[in-house]
Write a structure and sequence with these properties.
299 residues; mainly alpha; 14 helices
Length: 299
Amino acid sequence: MWMYLGLLAALFLGLHNLCKKHAVQGNEVFPVLLGTIGSGFLILLPFFIGSFYFPEYTKQIGFHINSISWKIHGFIFIKSMIMASSWVLAYQALKHLPITIVTPIRSAGPFFTFIGAIFIYQEKPNFLQWIGFFLIILSVILYSKIGKKEGINFKRNKWIFAIIGATFLGASSGLYDKFLIQSLELNPQTLQFWFCFYTVLILLGILSITWFPNKEKRKEFKWRWTIVAVGILLQAADYFYFKALQDPEALIMLLSAIKRSQILIAVVVGGLVFKEKNKRKKLIPLFGIMMGVCLILYS
C-alpha cells in the first residue's frame, strides 16, 4: 500500500513543479516561496483550530493535529530550517534554468537518500537497486551534456550548484522524515502544520532583510494563482508521502525513488507548456531515469 501512496505523492509533486515554474518565472522568488508555504499553512489552519475545539470530529475524519512537546517542536524546527534552505536554493535555480534541466538534477536526490538509508537505517539494497540508482545518476550526467546546448555550463553556472545543494538538503530532509514519522510517531497532519508554521516564520525573517525594505523589489513581485496552487499541491503530496512512511515496512530509499516518477509530468508536459529546447533529446535520459525507477520498483 505504501508504494501506491508514494505514486500519489509523485503525481501531486509533478503538478506542483509545473505550477511552481509558472509562479517563479520572471517573478521575485522569496515572496513566491512565502506565498506557497503560507497557502499550505492556511489550508491546514482549520484542522488545527478544529483539533482544539472539536477533537472528536477531527479524529473521526483522520485530520486531528496532536499536542506535542517542546522537544518535538525543536525537531520539527530543524526540518523547517533544512527545507527552507533547500527551497530558497531550488526556487532561485528554477527561476534561471529550464524545468527540463532542474527536474532531472533533482532526480539525483534518491541517490543521496539511498546512501543515507544504508548507513543510517541499515536498509539493504539488492543488485537491481544498485543498477537502478546508478542508471539514474548516469542519466543526470547525460542531461548536463544536453544542457550545455542551451548555453548552460554545468561547471561555471552558479544556479547548477544551487540546485545540487537544494537536492542534497532535500535528500537529507527525506531521511529525517523517517525519523520524525516512525521514531517520534508524528502523524502527517501534525508534522505538516508545525513544519509550515516554522517555515513561514523563517521566510518572514529572510524577507524582512532582503525584500520588504526594498521598494523596487516589491514592485517586481507579481501575484499569480499558481502560487496558491503550489501550496495546495505540495501539502497533498506531503500528506500521501508521510502516510506512506507511517507503514513500518516502508523503505525510504524506495519511496524517494518512486517520487522521482514525477519527472514524467515535469519533463514531457512542462517541456510542451513552457516550450523549452531539445525536448526530444531530453527524452533519452528521461527514459534512463524511468528505467532506473522501474528497476528499483521491480526489485
